[in-house]
Amino acid sequence: MDFENQWKSVQEENRKMKDRSDQRIWNKLERKIQFRNNCRKAIAVAAVLLPLFILMGLYFVENKNSAVQKELVFQTSNTKKQFILPDGTAITLEPQSRLKLAKDFGSTSRNVSFTGKAFFSVTKNKKLPFIVDAKGFKVQVLGTKFMLDQGKRNNVYLREGRVKVNYRGHITYLLPKETWIADQNGNEKHFYDHDVARAFDFNNRKFSEAVSQLEKTYDITIDYPEEIQYKMISGNISGNLDQVLQTISFPFNLKKERYSNNHIILKK
């Protein structure tokens, strides 16, 4: 009887140990299953949030760049000053002048608006033309040196390179030492410095016609004896103002006297 009771007791104890062992195993399995489920949830959440974080990052970067790309304004009061723009362009503003850069200046454009008088030394950039909106006309360059004046007349003077002037839809291209002017009535003209050499076709031309062409080319007034206005000259002549005047005056024994910078008198 004792042996039977002991055997039952041993069996009961083994069953309890087995149950506890099974429970521990099951608990471990449950923890592993729970860990895997948590990992899957974390991956799923990350898959949803990651694009959102990327978009938020791009948003903040864009806002940061937008904050940097503010309108820059350069202006003077009673003295002239030189300013260096972000693209390296140097601008000397005369008194009471103002220059404002577009928000996208240097990234997708090089547009500026301007009032007053200034000298521009523009850094060359073939992909981004430098465009000045001068209120009534526009000046476009790739890289050059020019002066812009909005005094009594709109005035553009080119020192180096090439300039395109757009005035009321009319396009004018300037060469070095050439000036473009538009007066208050909207009349345009462009002319060269007196030392610029040009080629002139004076074949079978009246003296008066040749002089008129020189006056227009160099923006100058030339007086001469009335009796030779219908005299004929002939030839292709190249040179600057003084050289061409000397050539057409020689057959008539005319001598040049300069009355002022923009006024010459031819006398016998």
Please sum up the structure shown.
With 268 residues, the protein is an alpha+beta fold. The protein has helices at 2-68, 207-218, 241-249, and strands spanning 73-75, 81-84, 90-93, 98-101, 110-115, 117-121, 130-133, 137-141, 145-150, 154-160, 163-167, 170-174, 178-182, 188-192, 198-201, 205-206, 221-223, 232-233, 236-239, 255-260, 263-267.
Task: Describe the 3D structure.
The chain has helices spanning 2-68, 207-218, 241-249; strands spanning 73-75, 81-84, 90-93, 98-101, 110-115, 117-121, 130-133, 137-141, 145-150, 154-160, 163-167, 170-174, 178-182, 188-192, 198-201, 205-206, 221-223, 232-233, 236-239, 255-260, 263-267. With 268 residues, it is α+β, with helices and mostly antiparallel strands. A 7-stranded mixed beta sheet has the order 1-4-5-7-8-11-12, with no helix packed on it.
How much of the polypeptide forms β-strand, as a percent range? 35-45%
Q: What does the radius of gyration come to?
A: 43 Å
Overall average pLDDT: 83
Number of DSSP E strands: 21
What structural category do the secondary elements indicate? alpha+beta
Distance between the termini: 164 Å
Main sheet attributes: strand count, strand direction, barrel closure: 7 strands, mixed
Give the low-confidence spans. Answer: 48-69
Strand order of the largest sheet: 1-4-5-7-8-11-12
Order of helices and strands: HEEEEEEEEEEEEEEEEHEEEHEE
What's the helical proportion of residues? 25-40%
The number of helical runs is 3
Shape: elongated
Outline the secondary-structure elements.
Blueprint: H1 2-68, E1 73-75, E2 81-84, E3 90-93, E4 98-101, E5 110-115, E6 117-121, E7 130-133, E8 137-141, E9 145-150, E10 154-160, E11 163-167, E12 170-174, E13 178-182, E14 188-192, E15 198-201, E16 205-206, H2 207-218, E17 221-223, E18 232-233, E19 236-239, H3 241-249, E20 255-260, E21 263-267
Parallel strand pairs: 5-7, 17-21
Antiparallel strand pairs: 1-4, 2-3, 3-6, 4-5, 6-9, 7-8, 8-11, 9-10, 10-13, 11-12, 13-14, 15-19, 16-18, 20-21
